[in-house]
Write a structure and sequence with these properties.
This protein is an alpha+beta fold. The chain has 2 helices and 5 strands; from the N terminus they run H-H-E-E-E-E-E.
Length: about 110
């Protein structure tokens, strides 16, 4: 009778049984949503960091352009969107690198 009284007051086993589905939902949520999103962010960061002159890119707005100037520490790059029409873009707005260009020369 004493063990029944302790079990009824604290409900140790019942609490763990109720907590298990919630913990399972968090694990599933992490592997189905959070982890893939973190991997996509990491891939995008690496892609943007490796942009070189001559690459053909697509911006988040859908503009296809050719990279004409890249500075390593600069958050902006210069691209050509039409013949003799160059604009500067923020690196974060690049959605895709379609064609890899030449390796940039030192200097």
């Amino acid at each position: 009778m004493h063990s029944t009284l302790v079990h009824a007051q604290f409900g140790g086993g019942d609490f763990m049984v109720q907590l298990l589905p919630i913990m399972l939902m968090f694990v599933i949520f992490y592997f189905l949503l959070l982890r893939p999103q973190q991997q996509r962010v990491k891939q995008h960061r690496e892609m943007v960091a490796n942009i070189r002159r001559g690459d053909v890119i697509v911006t988040a707005g859908g503009i296809v352009a050719k990279v004409t100037r890249v500075k390593e520490a600069d958050p902006e790059i210069e691209v050509e969107i039409a013949e003799n029409t160059r604009v500067r873009l923020m690196r974060g707005t690049i959605a895709e690198v379609r064609v890899k260009g030449e390796v940039a020369k030192a200097g």
